[in-house]
# Entry
Amino acid sequence: MELIAAGPDVFVLDDHRVLRRYRDGRPAHRDATLLAAVVDAGYPAPAVLGVDGPGMLLERLAGPTLADELLAGRRDAGEAGALLASLHARLHALPWPDGPSCTSTCTRRTWCWPRAGPW
# Structure
């Protein structure tokens, strides 16, 4: 398996799936529930395909990351900032199972931003 991100580690399984796994062994169920809720609400993030202990099986998103787009000169800093601001506003406007929005949950957690997506 190819490691493509660290923090929670993310490994490529195939062209369609990745495994996101917490090194410290904490259960991924809460994060999987949170991610599934934002995807169900229409937010551009990978679909949760399964969860087992510290691991989440996720949809592998196709396309370049925003960092790739910036480094290649296909986006400028203004466009990137506007995109991130738009994604941030959309995320915090979503209805949330534990309250009116996911703002309180996302400010305590840093994984809410998708690493890659259909920019």
